[in-house]
């Protein structure tokens, strides 16, 4: 059965530093699609983050590249298997040099936090009670 994938392409100031950041979060790098200008971060079997130097990113668009430290160009949301895993990933991001956002979302059946990576891209991490989703 075909599983659709998502490739999130993000511009970065420093490919090597971004690669290190995401490996410190526990993700792997696919070397087949990585080089000095890009890093292929495997988040899951169906989610890939392509970290591209701004020069390489510009090859794919005629638009101005947003300064992600000042402008929100996308909110990336990842699911987590538990509240503890939400906290764990955000804590790893902060330890690796990212910035935690103070907005903790706790609605009982859903819990989430967020962080900005080294380039200011916003990542949300959310757990939702499976019983609430089914019901």
Task: Walk me through this protein's architecture.
- The chain is an alpha/beta fold and 135 residues long.
- It has helices at residues 15-24, 54-57, 83-95, 130-134; strands at 6-12, 28-29, 38-42, 47-53, 75-79, 99-106, 110-116, 122-128.
- The strands form two sheets. Strands 1-4-3-2 form a four-stranded mixed beta sheet. A four-stranded mixed beta sheet has the order 5-8-7-6.
- Strand 6 and strand 7 (110-116) form a beta hairpin.
- The longest helix is centred in the middle third of the chain and has 13 residues, at 83-95.
- It is globular and about 45 Å long.
Order of helices and strands: EHEEEHEHEEEH
Q: What fraction strand? A: 35-45%
> Based on CA inertia axes, which overall geometry fits?
globular
What about the largest sheet? 4 strands, mixed
Radius of gyration: 15 Å
Distance between the termini: 27 Å
| Share in helix | 10-25%
Give the count of helical stretches: 4
Helix/strand/pairing category: alpha/beta
Count of strand segments: 8
Keywords:
single chain; alpha/beta; 4-stranded mixed β-sheet; 8 strands
List the helices and strands and how they pair.
Blueprint: E1 6-12, H1 15-24, E2 28-29, E3 38-42, E4 47-53, H2 54-57, E5 75-79, H3 83-95, E6 99-106, E7 110-116, E8 122-128, H4 130-134
Parallel strand pairs: 1-4, 5-8
Antiparallel strand pairs: 2-3, 3-4, 6-7, 7-8
